[in-house]
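# nightly structure sweep
# worker-07 picked up a monomer target from the shared queue
# config: single-sequence mode, recycle default, output format = structure tokens
# input follows
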Amino acid sequence: GNDRILYTVGDGDDVVDGGNDSGGPGPDYDILGITGDATARTFTVGKISGGTEIDPHAIDSSAVDATDLFITYTGPNAGSIRADEIERVKFNLSADDTIVFGDTTGTSLASNTIFVTSGGGNNTFDLRHYAGISTVLINDTDDTNGGDTDVVQLSGKRVDWTITQSGQYFI
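# output follows
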């Protein structure tokens, strides 16, 4: 079914298998929610090969064994999350955080499924090396007079990107 896994920064290294999704009236998503803390951290989102591969077939023979998604973060009590069968990731940031997006091709992430909620703090979103099918949606929840500055780093030419402001969302 559709699972929601909640992870709070500082919880250590975790392995997550979202399991097979079926039976619902589309889209069937397992969601990994990551909540930051008051410490400025750097999160890195990508994929990993090697090490202990998550094998969802061990529990469900109909599951899809995709490349594992790998998210790490720095700072006190730094940690990582290795995940398979996770279709959506939601970040909830509250400090001067940086998210570096790398290559997520071949993972279970579905399109339009990386969401970042950025509250207070001067956050940086580095998409210069991002590769994958997911759209990254950034929601800055403080008002434009909030006193912070968030930065989105892109590579390539302006015509390579579609940037849309919808309320507080830039797509």
